[in-house]
Amino acid sequence: MSPEEYKNKVNEICSQMGVELKLNPPADMQKIHEIQQQEKFQIDKALADFWQQFDGGEVDCPFFARPGYLTGYDFMSFEEAMTTRESMLRSSANYSEYVEPEIRDTRINAGWFQPGWLPFGNFGGHSLLLISDMSPSESGQAGQVIGYVHDPDQMVYIADSFVTFLQESIATLAADPEEYYFDI
To answer: Lesser CB count within 10 Å: N end or C end of the chain?
Structure first.
């Protein structure tokens, strides 16, 4: 699903609910490429394509939904994604001995931060994050989507790819739009 197709589907749902979808102009792709070179990490191509079309969206207007949950996520700008990634890196030392309440899905690498993790969606002041995972475990695959869940703090598996996530996200938003756009 292309960024434009996804945006049009979300926009259609928003329109049905009387909500205006507001997305930012495209990100500076040269800057994204430079940061990838400096930081020595890859960005999933499908996710990069989204930033190439629009650099995030308005706060508190869900653009993504986690399948199986009634939580809408804002689409973070590339700059916000990088700032959040840096914050996760700094915070990871605080979690070196933390034991998650449930056993982590084996497709997600151990630890509180991996160099290939890049958040792209958030809810509740970053208490819930959607993360593109380019550092999966041996049983995972690069580009899978994982999530950070606060309280109890844990990393969870969401989808095998960004494209699969998009399909599940739009289906989730469309199935119950009142839950995501009722009070905007």
So the answer is: C
Over the stretch 7-44, which tens digit does the pLDDT of each residue have? 999 999 999 999 999 999 999 989 898 888 887 888 99
Sheet holding 64-65, edge to edge: 64-65, 72-75, 117-123, 128-133, 144-149, 154-159
H or E element in which residue 139 lies: none
Task: Assign 40 to helix, strand or coil.
Answer: coil
From CA 101, how far away is CA 155, in angstroms rounded?
10
Assigned token pair, 26: 């495209």
Place of tokens 């969206």: 57
Could you give the CA distance from residue 8 to residue 1 in angstroms, rounded to a whole number?
11
